[in-house]
């Protein structure tokens, strides 16, 4: 119920949140259309190649004989799913490390933050490229998501730790501790509700970051190019020199859709950050000076 109340306030008083919700909603609708696609996702030359956008082919067709619209529905679904999987897995790790380190303190905090700082300084993109060359035959979509999630939690864990450290000295934490509550119960029931707005905001940013990683690697051919993704569509367009051949729609529509997703998620993230700040929230609701 508290989440629904927050959502209602954001939609009512924050234009950026409402606009971001609309943009992300449109992308989600596009992704859901993939389930009713009339074409098998991996088949090629099922339609006439290089047909420009028209009433028959809304986004045109590719040089591989694929309908860009229907191919894009599956590509954005896979790309968005990749971002969500990475964000959820990395949020779980960040929550565990951040909450435990912030609440426990002492040697537990020092050990966890030492591990955290190690992941912070790891150059992520070269590591992912190295993983591709080492595991080229096994580098599937799911494997890339697991590796990216395992490398992309450290920054947010430190943010959650800072919040947990402030909650550790609160009266309700002491009351729960002296009443015999276990560490897990204190973290889940007492501390987790306070960090959820931060988790939501960082989730939006992490989805954007992981999608950017996936698109970049796919465009360069450092992933499973047989799995339809937005980056994979651009990769095949480059392989067929689409822009030189005048098949601009093969690149333009995937880029436009992923930019729409980036902007939508960015607006959701900044509006949630603004909501976390009480002064900004009061100003939005007409209570500011």
Structural account:
The protein has helices at residues 2-13, 15-32, 68-104, 106-121, 124-134, 141-151, 154-168, 171-178, 183-219, 230-239, 242-245, 249-276, 278-284. The protein is mainly α. It has a single domain (2-284), classed as MetI-like fold (Orthogonal Bundle). Helix 4 packs antiparallel against helix 7 (154-168) and helix 10 (230-239) runs antiparallel to helix 12 (249-276). The two termini are 30 Å apart. The model has no long low-confidence stretch (mean pLDDT 85).
Q: What average pLDDT do the residues reach?
A: 85
Counting H and I runs of at least 4 residues, what is the number of helices? 13
Low-pLDDT ranges: none
Q: Considering DSSP H and I runs of 4 or more, what fraction of the residues is helical?
A: over 70%
Provide the number of structural domains: 1
> How many beta strands in the DSSP annotation?
0
Q: Could you say what the CATH topology is called?
A: MetI-like fold
General form: elongated
Write the CATH architecture name.
Orthogonal Bundle
Strand content: under 5%
Which CATH first-tier class would you pick?
Mainly Alpha
CATH superfamily: MetI-like
Distance between the termini: 30 Å
Can you summarize the main beta sheet?
Answer: none
Structural class: mainly alpha
